Amino acid sequence: MSSSKARLTPVTGGAAASDLSAARRVLTTAATALGTLADCLNGDFTHAVDLVLAAKGRVIVSGMGKSGHIARKIAATLSSTGTPAYFVHPAEASHGDMGAITRQDALLLLSWGGETAELSDLITYAKRHGLPIIAIGANPDSTLIKAADVKLVLPREPEACPMGLAPTTSTTMMLSLGDALAVALMERKGFSPDQYRDFHPGGSLGRALVRVCDLMHSGGEMPLAAQNTGMRDVLLTMASGRMGCVGIVDDVGNLVGIVTDGDVRRHAEQGFENRAARDVMTRGPQIARPDQLAAEALGLMTEKKITQLFVVDEGSGKPAGILHIHDCLRAGLI
Fold this sequence. Notes:
Elements: H1 14-40, H2 43-54, E1 59-63, H3 66-80, E2 85-87, H4 90-93, E3 106-110, H5 120-129, E4 133-137, H6 143-147, E5 150-153, H7 169-189, H8 193-199, H9 203-208, H10 212-215, E6 224-226, H11 231-241, E7 245-249, E8 255-260, H12 261-266, H13 277-280, E9 282-283, E10 287-288, H14 294-304, E11 308-312, E12 319-324, H15 325-330
Parallel strand pairs: 1-2, 1-3, 3-4, 4-5, 6-7, 10-11
Antiparallel strand pairs: 7-8, 8-9, 11-12
Helix pairs in contact: 1-7, 3-7
């Protein structure tokens, strides 16, 4: 009975060598071009960053064909790193989508040759309403580059395809320059991991950046008792809190110990019911900080083979919350 799945026959000999040669040529050509581009950067790049920061609206990114695909990715990268951006298709812009552009926006237009006809209406619209234009292209004498307020001119490096026609090296440079612009803007703005997490709440990125303060139980949900509290009351607090522990605090409210299920079992035969919490507690318990990554707190719990951590404010020494390993489970960290 034949399999419905296609079987791949390993390619060997001359064909394999030819494939690898082509791949290495493409990657080497791109690497060389990116090195040249890095060396060509000058004050115009800084002016582009300044212009985007000065815009009170969004960055409208546009390009046609392969440049358009790159423009979409640049817009997405800018938006996800704290710079609101929106892709407008140049052909659709001429048929109503120009309405998506406000008077507070800045334009980032991409065209290798700089003579893309579909961009002409966007250029005219920007000039009419005084919108700044940043242009990315390779021809300094082109209509686009001449019309731009900031000109990011790409070096004329060869395309990697054997005919020298298919956009390969050129689009790689455009994409990398867009990434460079996004990162420079992030650093100028002081874009934080918390902000990044806010823009990436789903998937592994969002989970990796969840902090302890986002998961911990605080306020009345914290099972706490004073050092002189009798163990009968400590057990009642432990049962009502459902955390499997009670945090023990001193006279000023600082966390000084913890009573866990394990502590209760270890003292069960010593008539501890009439003893105080200070006689049973484990002193100097493991703790977490509110701004600590939840993944780090989970790693500590795993290492120490414990199921909960009190969260202590670094400034005051007082408990701010409690984190249970089940909270990490619900957050998808396990």
